[in-house]
Description:
The chain is α+β, with helices and mostly antiparallel strands. The chain has 14 helices and 20 strands.
Amino acid sequence: MAVVSLREEATELLRALIRLDTVNPPGNETLAAELLRDYLAESGVQAELIAKVPERANLVARLPGRSDGPTLLLLSHTDTVLADPGEWQRDPWSGDVVDGEIWGRGALDMKGQVAAAAVAIASLARDGFEPAGDLIYVAAADEEVGAGFGLSWLCREHPDAVRCDLCVNEGGGERIEVGGIPLYLCATAEKMSSPFRLRVRGTSGHASIGALADNALVKAARLIELLGEFRPEPRLIPEVAGLLRALGQEPPAPEDLLDRARSLGGEVAELLEPLLGMTVAPTVIHASDKRNVIPALCDVVCDCRLLPEQTQAEAEAAIRAALPEGDWELEWLEGQGGTRSPAAGPLWEAAASFVAETEPEARLAPVCCAGFTDSHWLREAFGTVSYGFFPARAMPADEAAKLIHSADERIPVDDLELGVRWLRHAALSTLGHD
């Protein structure tokens, strides 16, 4: 391939990826997988497409290890959320470069990291890098919906393709400043997605004589209000303790955690508050399908996120304690995620050394994702140490957060280049010796 800088290489690859519409659903991730396969082949990196259905392929590439050293996986996903062109200043699939930023759906979430990881493994192959253990690159399908075409399916049906000791994924890398101290956040854990249904029962009747019925929707209203006000007792998790210690602070007693979080300022308080306990948000309601029928049944679906070590039984006890007894039932709809990796070991040391080299006055701090990523599939299947870490400093963290899954999504080329440097550093640091 023509000799260009890694910065230019990553920019052009990302622009090409953005121009492929891989909105999920339906996904059509094979378009991106084929583009990446052809790109990697130019540098001698062999890749295979593994697909449950032909149009939704996952790409898996590998630099074989020279010994039985640890295995590092650079994980990404090629599907995106939808984009309404009418809301954007530019075509969401243009890949335009404007004022040093690459525009398009997926630029931040997460085709930028897809491109950076591909350039990292391709450039290492061209450099003649022989890793101590396998270096794997996965561009997975179906992360945004999780309908069983992506990493969960690979872990179950093709485990040897993705089995790894260490993994770098999305979910962290933001740079924030607290009291003049720069912190780069490394997502070492994630909360469990644990939605539940509250089913409220009454008796039906004609709406014109409502006094003769027992309106389940009205009964649900008070429960919804209480769920909206629900705040569990704060709990100190290792990631919050680690972040506070990175700031030179000892964690307070649990009852003082909320005050401490708020004392650190708006951006940090917004980051920490959801990590002090489970969260519950009523989001969907269904009662009568007819205007003139008083409902005997009202279903309220709540988004609920549990701390990594928290069980649904424990959470249910807290929810029940917050609600009055009555004719209602609680049913858990799923429980995904809720895993963590230790903020220690070779991958943590690699991230810390990269931060030290990039910005000597900055510090690396652990954080727990309030949502969840594909990392939990690897942790659950193989005990993988998986971090969400794709450092960014050109675009402020609060600005980037507003663009993800929103209009005018874009990534600074400087941050894309920083990501390539980090992923190369991660591979060289963890796999560069026996």
